[in-house]
Amino acid sequence: MEPEQMFLGIAVIIGCHSGMKAILHHRLKMAEIKAKSVQANDVGVQVAIDELRNEVRQLRDTTMRYDMSFDAALTRMEERVDRMETRSSYTTTANDPLARLRTEQ
């Protein structure tokens, strides 16, 4: 083998080694970037899920408060109607002598 060919062979081997090293380094960096973006997306998704959970919790609390308020209002209305019916029947009985006789029988 002549010295020029040997020198050329060594240069090609060194060049291929450097080229392969650059390609592998580039692929490694790309994999790291992808991994970071996936992790960043995971964090973003987790934050969004937590916000939605808090929103659902707040909506549940609000609806429960409105439900309890509606139940309380309904109870007050029933009590008022009962009092009015009681007054009405007492007033009717007190003013109508025949109504008292009917209720006594």
Estimate the helix proportion, in percent.
over 70%
SSE topology string: HH
- What can be said about the biggest beta sheet? none
Number of DSSP-assigned strands: 0
Stretches where pLDDT is under 50 for at least 5 consecutive residues are none
Shape, principal axes of CA atoms:
rod-shaped
Q: What is the SS-derived class?
A: mainly alpha
**How big a fraction of the residues is strand?**
under 5%
Amino- and carboxy-terminal Cα gap:
138 Å
Number of helices: 2
Q: Rounded to an integer, what's the Rg over CA atoms?
A: 44 Å
Q: Mean pLDDT, rounded to whole units?
A: 81
Commentary on this structure:
The chain has 105 residues and is an all-alpha fold. It has a domain at 54-105. It has 2 helices and no strands. It has helices at residues 3-95, 97-104. The longest helix has 93 residues, at 3-95. The protein is rod-shaped, with a radius of gyration of 44 Å. The mean pLDDT is 81.
